[in-house]
Amino acid sequence: MKSDNTIIELKGLTKRYGYGDTESFALKDFDLTIKRGEFIMIMGPSGCGKTTLLNMIGMLDRPTSGEYILNGENVAGISSARQARLRAKKIGIIFQDFNLIQDLPVIENVALPLVYVNRPRTVRLKSASEALSRFHLSEREYYYPHQLSGGQQQRVAIARAIVSEPEIILADEPTGNLDSRSSNIVMEELKNIHEEGNTIIMVTHNPALTVYATRVINMLDGQIDTDIKTVSDQNLPQPINVKIKKNKKSKEKK
Ligand SMILES: Nc1ncnc2c1ncn2[C@@H]1O[C@H](COP(=O)(O)OP(=O)(O)O)[C@@H](O)[C@H]1O
Ligand SMILES: [Mg+2]
Questions:
Q1: Which of 27, 201, 211, 214 holds its CA 20 to 30 A away from the CA of 190?
Q2: Which residue has a Cα nearest atom 1 of ligand 1?
Q3: Domain containing 212 — which CATH number?
Q4: Is residue 197 part of a domain?
């Protein structure tokens, strides 16, 4: 394992769709090293591969070829069950359209990720309640998603993304469906989460939001076009409770 603060390394990551005449590359020989505490914004025209990239990092989809090294372990080829376990522990995901389950109350939505890390129900509800209070949604615990505004729903989705204390947050245009006021609130919450030492990778179309980023990557045709760091690696926020986990691969159950 690297002794520096690398959390994610993508090496030659490629996602191909179709064959022969219909062959196209959503990601092409994509290399990227991400340090703990980066807040990366991914920009670029529609169809350039931004969502594909987040899906790869979130292990929601598999690359055609290439390596994905997460905390020193190549996870590109491990079983879907192990990917799901790793995802539940390490990665929180926020979508443009919130992706809340409509027939579950807010608190149950937020508690859901804790099912996958085997927390008992009382603990799940307590943690969900705490996460919601952080986002000023305590009075809304037993509302259903459709009873909330878009901004509130996205804050619920953020609570759900962080409830299991993952160190990586992926967000695909999280403010894309929000008015500017709600958008600002959501960005301030993401900023706070980042300042606690978490790593955030966010897709956006809005150049104004790049003020929150420590690094801005512009993509084009499945590749990196420009990559600019606005904060040096030494100055990235570090986890408040530094849990330097010894990532012994052998400890992960097969
Ligand atoms: N399931 C799929 N089958 C075929 N092509 C796909 C599929 N998913 C994405 N693509 C193609 O991959 C490219 C990148 O898509 P995507 O990652 O969604 O781009 P972005 O998020 O930047 O708009 C696009 O050309 C898209 O049409
Ligand atoms: Mg997209």
A1: 27
A2: 17
A3: 3.40.50.300
A4: yes
